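Reopening closed ticket. The problem is back. First fold of the pair:
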Amino acid sequence: MSVLPQGAGAVTRDRVITLFTGPGPAPALLGHYRDPRNALILIFFNHWWRFDASLDAWELRVPTRAVCPVSVGSEEMEFSIRHIWNSDPVDHPPVRIRFCPGDGGLKMVVHAPFFNDPPAPAGPPGQPFPGLWDYEVVESFFLNSSSEKYLEVEVCPHGQHLVLLLSGKHNAFLQQVPLSFSAVVKGNRWKGEALIPWKYFPPGVDKMNSYAIHGSGSGRTYEALYPVPPEDLQPGQGPDFHRLEYFQPFSLQSIMGEGWVQPESDLWKNT
C-alpha cells in the first residue's frame, strides 16, 4: 500500500503524486479539501485519506460505498462524473460540476464534453423545456433523506433547463419554474452556469447525486456521480436516477459556511 509522508503540507493536483512513496502507481486523486475541523482530506474513488493533526499522521478511511466528489477551496465544491449508472467507467473526459455561493442562491457551473446528440430541443434557450431528460443534459439532485423531498435541476448545452420539486420518488408537485441559466458551446466542449434560488431547495438538504445523459437509441448513455454498485445490479435492470438510496452526504454549509442557515421557502409548505 502507498504510504503518505508525515505532515499536511500544501496539496495540488500537479504535486499529489509526490505524496506517495513505494512501488507501483499512485491512485488517481479526485480532489482535496478542508473539512469543518480544518483537517485535510484527499479523495480517491473508493477511499480517502484524512490528516490527523493531533497525531501528525494520515489515517485511511474506506466508506461502505465508493465516493467520487472533488472538493476544492472552502467556498466551492466540484464533482466529476466518472461512471455510467451501473458503475462502468465513462469513455471520455468526465463531466465536471462546480457549486459555489451565488447572489440569492447556489451557483452551479458545468464543464462537459459536447456530443450534440440528440439535436437541440425545439424550445428557446434560457427557458424551461418539459422532458429535457430525453436530450443531452446534466442533472443535479438535492435531497432531504428523511422526508424524501428533493430538488432536481437539469441543464442542457443548448441553453434550455428544467427544474422539478419533488415530494417522494418521482412525485413532482412543481416544475418548469424560472431559472437563470446560460450555456456556451466551444468546439467539442460546453460550459453552463445556473443560479439556483434558495427557495427551490427543500429544507434540510443532506444528500445529493448528479448525472449526465447523451446519445440516441442504443447509444443512449446514462452517467452517474454515485452509480449503482456492481453488487446491487439485478438482471434486466436499467437506469433510474431517482434511486435515492444511492445518494451520498452533501452539506450546503460546506459551501456557504458552517454558520449559514438555509432560508425558509413557502414552496415546500404543505407538501
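Second fold of the pair, where the issue appears:
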Amino acid sequence: MEDAISLHQQALELHPAGHPKRSFSLLSLANCIQSRYESQTLQNDPYVALPQISTTILSAPSPLIDNLVWDTLHSIPTRLVQTNTGILLTQDEMVAQFQASTQYHNLVTLLENINDWHSIINHIQENIVTYFKYAILSHRWGHNEPLLQDILLNGSVYDMPPTDGLIKLQKFCDTAAHHGYSWAWSDTCCIDKTNSVELHKAIGSMFLWYQQAALTIVYLADIPSSSLTFSGSAWFTRGWTLQELLAPHTILFYTQEWSLYMGSTAQNHKKDSSILNELAQAAGIPPQHLRGFNAGMDNARSKLQWAVGRHTTVLEDIAYSLFGIFNLHLPVLYGEGEEKAIGRLLQEILSQSHDTSILQW
C-alpha cells in the first residue's frame, strides 16, 4: 500500500495545480489513504475515530474548488497531524481527504445551481479555510521528542510507545481536537530535518505558519498548575519562542498538567488583561505589541532588544529566529557561525530601515 501511495504522489508531481488530471490523481490517492487507514489497528484506540471515506461521496472533480484549496494551502505548513487519527499527512494527502469528504461533495453540488458567482466563491473559500484550520504547538524541546521518521514508521502518534515527548504530542493533538481543530502542527515531527531544503523552507515560513494558525497552544512544562506566575518558565528564555509569542493572533497557555494557566476561561489569553499584563512583564514587551504585532522594520531596535537574553541550541538560530519578525527572507547558512549570522541580519535591517541605532542593541 505504501508503494501505491508513493506512486500516486509521484503522479501528483507530474500533475501540478491546474493540471486537468490532478483532481483524478488526488481522488485515487484518497482511495489508497483510506485503504491504509483500514489496515491500521487503530479502531480500539479510545483517542481515534477513523473517518470513513465512502465512494458514494467522491464527487466529480472541480477545478474551481481545487484551485481555491491550493491557494489556501499555500500559506500553511506542508505537513499536519490529523488530530482524530494521529496520522501525519502531506498537503497532497490532506487534499485527497478533502476531496473524499462530504464537505467537498456539498460544495460541488452547490456549484450546480449558481446565481451569484461572487457570493458562491466567498462561501467556498470560507468552507475551505474552515476545513484546513489548524492548531500549532509552542514549547521547549525536551527528551525523546518524536521526529517525522518515528511517526511515519509507527503510523499514528496514538499508536507509539510512550515517552515524555510522545505524551506531550498526544496531549497537544487531543487538546487541539478538544478546541475543534482537525489538524495540528508541531516542529518536532512535522518537518523532515534530514532534508536541508525542507528545513530551510520551514525556517523561512515559520513566522507565517504561527500567524496563520487558528490557535497557538503554548505548553509550559516547567510550570505546575498550582503556580501563581509563569514568568520563571524557560519558555521565555528561548530564541524561537519570541516569534511564537508575537506572530499568533490567538494563544492559550497550558501548564505542566495540561490545564489552562490560572484556570482562565478566555478564548484568547492575549485578550485576558491579567494574563496579558503578566505576559508583557515576563517577555519585556509592551502589551500593544503582543495584542497586534506588525512584522517589519518599524521599531527595529526595540525588536532586537526583545531578543536579548534569549538563547538557542544552534548558535546561528539566534539570528535565524528573528527573520520572520523583521519580515526578512535571507539564506539559512548553518556552519557560518553566530557572529556572521547576526552580522548578515543587522546589515539587512540597516539597509532597509536606515536606523543606525540598531548597532547599539
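Update: turned out to be a display glitch only; the data is intact. The mean pLDDT is 87. The CA atoms of residues 144 and 164 lie 7 Å apart. Please close again.
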